[in-house]
Amino acid sequence: MSKYLMKSGNVLQFDDAKKPSLPKSDILVEDNIIANISSDLGTGDSGTEVIDASDYIVSPSFIDGHRHVFQAQLRTTFADHPFLDYCAHLLQGHMTFLILEDMYLAQLSGATEALWCGITPVMDHSHEAVSRECAEKCIRATLESGIRSICCVAPFANPQSLSPMVLLNMDGKHPEQISLLKSLIGENPLGGQSNDGRVAIGLGYDTMNHRPLDEAHDILHFAKSNDIPVIVHDVERFNSSSLKLLRRNNLPPPKLTLSHTREPDSDRAERLKSHEIGVVSAPETELPMATESPQLLTYNGRAAVLD
Hints:
By secondary structure, the chain is an alpha/beta fold. It is 30% helix and 25% strand.
């Protein structure tokens, strides 16, 4: 669908004083971009699909800046877990049992759930893309859902064994997954011809805090040079203070978003602003997961959003 016209919807708008109103309006969309909003745009030409929105409220969508989409199927089983329990029981526990079709269904249901909740763009911190096969399933499900997404491939490896717990040596696995990321970036369009530009690739780089600095420098430089969005956890309490690592080691900041960041001092906040670093803070998540008390930020016109 390249052009459609939503007629007579109750369109949520805000004036300069941020006072809302719901005037009856038409919205014309051309090539996925809002081209016009007016009280009466007619019925369009023969190539325009007309949608009767007279019984509906039409509003901007929510933007989710940090979501592990595939975890939708498992969310209620870990709702009361602090951060370390979540890592042990989900990332290094239940996730181990997901086969490829599980990954596909989990991703599809998670993305569809987001859409039904009014979320159309999402930054997907994708721990399930542990191999090319898994990444392809994830991207396919994301495309089929219809959501707009940045699929941030996050280097990660399932344990080799749960009983006893045997973790995989990431020295061999990590470069392999970075190579996977680079190969996905080379796909145009990502995932095939069904991708009309809604789904792009990104990097979830939590391992930055635990890898050799020269390796981190090379990967971040690659991301910056290729304009790849990067999302990292920024939780000092659990040895994942990504912003501090960047500052201390003069690592190149790419197009970066910090998740779980809380209570920055003025110097830290100024650095976020000067480098246009995004912040995602989720009070409903931070408190029960014991990442310490969060504080929402608004700076340079960009606001923190909920998980």
